[in-house]
Design goal:
The protein is of the alpha/beta class. It contains 13 helices and eleven strands. It folds into three domains: 133 residues, Rossmann fold (3-Layer(aba) Sandwich), CATH 3.40.50.2300; 73 residues; 69 residues, 434 Repressor (Amino-terminal Domain).
């Protein structure tokens, strides 16, 4: 896969011993669609295990044998390891290939916890569809606003979510308008394949998806302010457009109001961007100007 812009994601495979596996993984990442551009780094892992902090670097996917990664993990204090992971914006995909890898399976939970949940363990490298799924999921998780974890907290009846940039927060079904959905099974909550949704099973055996961007807005105050500001600017722009359409028709606000069956004060608030008109109000506005709603909203 080629890109004229700077790669958004890097990957390092120096923790994998077999050249044929490295070659195949490299090809898979370079050809992978829908994951953004990737570029190989050959010094990230060396720098990481030497405890040289790398602040402000682009996200990096570290691919390695489970044994190699765990062996390095055990050489560091847990707090230090967690700090390195967070500062370097990395994500691990570890492969279980040999008996040595299998002997370190008991360390996976500790590794995942210390790595801030930024670990995928691929247990079957003979099934390339599983390997590809692990890679796609990991690359997606490197995006700052990607969901990487969700857990249901039964005592609080809430969900805790974590995003790729470390942002965490909690929410309840009532906050996303789902408090009346008695068919959802909260304990089944899991992150969708590419970190864009939270998936919940239903009592009928179905699957219900919650949009990750909506959840991000719930837990990210800066994003909420940004969305609110964008909405305000859009409302102001719409009001200005409607004012120009009225003036082009040679009508005053009072004349338009009489034709549309709208109060002049309502029209004034809309044109000044104080309120966002409902679709039925837009239809009244358009009909009074002998326009379709599409024509009304066209610059």
């Amino acid at each position: 896969m080629t890109s004229s812009s700077a790669p958004s994601t890097a990957f390092d495979m120096t923790a994998i011993g077999r050249k044929d596996l490295r070659d195949r993984l490299r090809h898979a990442l370079e050809e992978m669609e829908g994951t953004g551009s990737v570029d190989e780094s050959e010094d990230f892992w060396t720098s990481f295990v030497a405890s040289r902090k790398r602040h402000g670097q682009r996200p990096t996917l570290v691919l390695g044998n489970l044994a190699s990664v765990v062996q390095e993990f055990r050489k560091h204090r847990v707090h230090d390891w967690t700090t390195y992971v967070r500062n370097s914006h990395c994500y691990f995909v570890t492969f279980v290939r040999t008996e040595q890898d299998k002997s370190y399976a008991a360390w996976v939970d500790d590794l995942v916890k210390a790595s801030d949940l930024r670990v995928n363990v691929c247990n079957d490298v003979t099934d390339w569809s599983i390997v590809t799924k692990c890679l796609r999921s990991a690359v997606a998780a490197l995006q700052p606003q990607a969901l990487i974890d969700v857990r249901f907290l039964p005592d609080q009846r809430q969900f805790r979510v974590q995003f790729g940039d470390g942002r965490t927060g909690t929410f309840g079904l009532d906050e996303i308008g789902l408090s009346e959905r008695e068919d959802l099974i909260p304990e089944s909550a899991t992150v969708g394949e590419f970190g864009t949704t939270v998936e919940l099973a239903t009592v009928s055996g179905g699957l219900f998806e919650i949009d990750g961007a909506a959840l991000r807005a719930l837990v990210d105050e800066d994003l909420r302010r940004q969305i609110a500001e964008q909405g305000k600017n859009q409302t102001i722009a719409l009001g200005g457009l409607l004012r120009e359409k009225r003036k082009q028709a040679g009508l005053t606000q009072a004349e338009l109001g009489e034709r549309a069956g709208l109060d002049q004060a309502v029209i004034s608030r809309i044109e000044r961007g104080r309120v966002r008109p409902r679709i039925d109000t837009l239809r009244q506005f358009a009909n009074a100007l002998d326009l379709s709603v599409g024509q009304l909203l066209s610059p």
